[in-house]
Amino acid sequence: MSDAREALTRAHREEWARVVATLAKRFGHLGTAEDAAAEAFATAAERWPEDGVPPNPGAWLTTTATRKAIDQIRRDSKRDGKHREARLVSSAPAEPLGAVDDDRLRLIFICCHPALAMEARVALTLRMVGGLAVPEIARAFLVQDTAMSARITRAKAKIAAARIPYRIPSAADLPERVSGVLAVLYLVFNEGYLATGPGTAPVRDDLAAEAIRLARLLHELLPDDGEATGMLALMLLTDARRAARVSASGGLVPLDEQDRSRWDAARIAEGHALVRERLASGEAPGRYQLLAAVNAVHTDGDATDWTQVVALYDQLVRLDGSPVVRLNRAVAVGECDGPHVGLALVDALEPDLAGYHGFHAARANLLRRLGRTAEARDAYDAAIALAGNTAETAFLQRRRDGLQG
Amino acid sequence: MQYLVNVIDHRSNSGTDEEMVAIDAFNDRLRAGGHWVFAGGLADPTASTVVDGRGESPVLTDGPFAETKEWAAGLWIIEAPDLDAALALMTEGSKACNRRLEVRPLYAG
């Protein structure tokens, strides 16, 4: 009984995306694929405890889902023959990619298509690729089930009506499309890792874990893509510190005060190996690879080597000179060359970042280190007023209340 | 599959000669690739008349059906196998006419 349940959980994790992707290709319709996959898993939940787990669960699920889809199509065509929805346009990749031609890759690219709104991409990816139930996604993003369901339905309708193709992009478009997929995965990860909104648990482990699972799948499907590798490494190295990141009282614990024995050694080792693999490739790193490298430095040895962090942020600023990236560089410079130098760089960013809590938090910390207590207190107040995360607010309050004088 | 492409504008009669040359060249490329169905410029929305013929006698109203800050200043109808192809083509079209474009599927007849 519990063996069957365990097998079903594992099959759901490992086979859901493959079943949906295969059926979407065969029947040319995402909704049909989704419904049939859900029915097949429901049937498995009934039958496996009675009949035993089939020797090849994935094949059993695909066959069952295919039968369910055919039944559904027959019922639909009897009910309303002319109301057939548009079929997905699919084709083989235009050029060989050095990647596996896997239907799951098509599924990922269609869910993260740039013609869909970002929130629709996130919802569709979690449903179609991740296999999360609509109420789970709704809870994770703090919206009503009906609203989330409507969001997913609208996205599927647009894919059909506008003929968004079920296709692996051409080699020329691939980097940009992969970066679109990575943006979706990173958003899911951060939503889990740094949840916002009062009353939410500071860390929603399930979303972060889901993002890692999806990043792992993308890396498996595109093993030579440096940024996909970088994203997986970045998530692993960030998530490895999760247990040490929030104190028993619910406050954020800064890196240098974290109990390193509570870090997840396996995740750190895997993340470091991926970063080393990218370094060995000799290819110029993209943004996620650089961020992964920064986190590799943070998790290497007993303390962060800030000179290396500054060097990595120098590279990142050349790729992405956005104010937030420059702020992170300024913080690293402050650790390296002293708070005076860091503060001058941070202050220069005020016109762009006055509404961002991270800016005020960084300033507050530098002012505190310089002993400019009154100014530090004001900066902490500004940061607390803007911070949305409960753990972060708790940390900022503790720092503010600990100011001397 | 056909797509209607609206040329988004917020100023009246704002097209330049240079843009017209670029648009002509782009239309030639659309024809050569078998994507051209129709293209045309539109008069200013203030030249519109709304007609409602559903009642016994038609009701005519001066002006466009919706007052908006932006409107369609022209349109294309193109033939493309899918949205990716349509968007790739109209990225070039947007450069040629120097305007943002709305790409919208037409239902197959």
Structural notes for this entry:
Chain A contains 20 helices and no strands. The mean pLDDT of chain A is about 90. In chain A, helix 6 packs across helix 7, helix 8 packs antiparallel against helix 9 (about 205-220) and helix 8 (about 175-195) packs parallel to helix 10. Chain A has helices at about 1-25, 30-50, 55-80, 105-110, 120-130, 135-140, 145-160, 175-195, 205-220, 225-240, 240-245, 265-280, 285-300, 305-320, 325-335, 340-345, 350-355, 355-370, 375-385, 390-400. Among the domains of chain A are: about 1-80, Rna Polymerase Sigma Factor, Chain: A, CATH 1.10.1740; about 225-250 and about 260-300, no CATH class; about 305-405, Serine Threonine Protein Phosphatase 5, Tetratricopeptide repeat (Alpha Horseshoe). Chain A starts with a helix and ends with a helix. Chain A is elongated and about 80 Å long. Chain A is mainly α and about 400 residues long. The longest helix of chain A has 26 residues, at about 1-25. Chain B is of the alpha+beta class. Chain B has a single domain, classed as Dimeric alpha+beta barrel (Alpha-Beta Plaits), CATH 3.30.70. In chain B, about 30% of the residues lie in helices and about 35% in strands. A four-stranded antiparallel sheet of chain B has the order 2-5-1-6, with helices on one face. A two-stranded antiparallel sheet of chain B has the order 3-4. In chain B, a hairpin with a 6-residue loop joins strand 3 and strand 4. In chain B, helix 1 (about 15-30) packs antiparallel against helix 2. The longest helix of chain B is centred in the first third of the chain and has 16 residues, at about 15-30. Classes of the chains: A mainly alpha (about 400), B alpha+beta (about 110). At the A-B interface, loops of A face helix 2 and strand 6 of B. Chain A: InterPro entries: DUF6596, RNA_pol_sigma70_r2, RNA_pol_sigma_r2, RNA_pol_sigma_r3/r4-like. Chain A: GO terms for molecular function: DNA-binding transcription factor activity. Chain A: This is RNA polymerase sigma-70 factor, ECF subfamily.
